[in-house]
Amino acid sequence: MPVNRNALIRYTTIDKCLRNQYRKWTLDDLMDACSDALYEFEGIDKGVSKRTIQLDIQNMRSEKLGYNAPIVVTDKKFYTYDDPEYSITQLPFSDQDLNKLNDAVDILKQFQGFSHFSEMSGLIQKLENKIYTEQSKERSIIHIDKNEHLKGLEHLNQLYHVIQKKQVIKIEYQSFTARRSNPIYFFPYLLKEFNNRWFLVGKHKSKKSKLITLALDRIHSIEVKEQMQFLDDPDFDPDEYYQPVIGVTVNEGLKARSVVLKFDRLNAPYVITKPLHPSQQIIEKGNDGITVRLNVIPNYELERVLLGFGPSLEVVSPPSLRKRISELIQKSFKVYCSEID
Predict the structure, then answer these.
(1) pLDDT digit string (tens) for 172-193?
(2) Distance CA 234, CA 206 (A)
(3) Residue 246 falls within a domain, yes or no?
């Protein structure tokens, strides 16, 4: 049974009242308490009806929410808990609840680089402690790929806020081919994650017409330049921009091309159930395997994906991509040949 925020506020307010055994609570008293709580937390000033409170008490008593609250009426008008130690906030978790909480905590921990989630770190630790104390040590149901030692994650929170505030930043950036870092004045637009690695997308101050992608693990430092004017690009749509590619590299100026790939019978089921790209279409299916067509812009990430299939894949077209993959395979072959010799 789904419970909205207002209902939860009423339930917790009623619970707080009934736990106070030093006062007798009538239905009108509970109505007033819930009305005050809704006004305080949600700004709702229309009050709560008697019928609503009666339904809330009925729900709290029932198994619908798992409360089974021992609410009794004394002298035909006063509401209280039959068990003075009872509270809906102290209910034990079921095994199913604990498993769900465990999975939710694992998922939340992936985003602790952002302040929104780092501020929740205390809550996450409390949840973990609650789960640990109430659950026997069982193996996890969900396992998420993560690399806690990945460089650049410390920049996530700051970059999120400068993008939100549309601020110009000065970045000390060192590419893999550079011997030392260089300053870049940058207009940041987007944070993008791919293959467990984070990237910053925006425009260079001196190259305003071209979108640039920077890897966060190559950033040495970030300085906000509050006095500089931010150059926005209202036409930049991330969904549209990345639609024709796999990964983060968009070779601007190139249009999506028809890429035809042939997979052997062993790998065909994997490609069918997990398409390489949303544009994937099966154009031929036989006993030896399948042939598919993608409509993408060839880039570095596409090459990495295709090479990962090894001898199970043949690039049929375009000729330029077929030649490129062939050259890379031949280079790999030479490396292994030299080791054998």
Answers:
(1) 988 888 788 888 899 999 988 8
(2) 19
(3) no
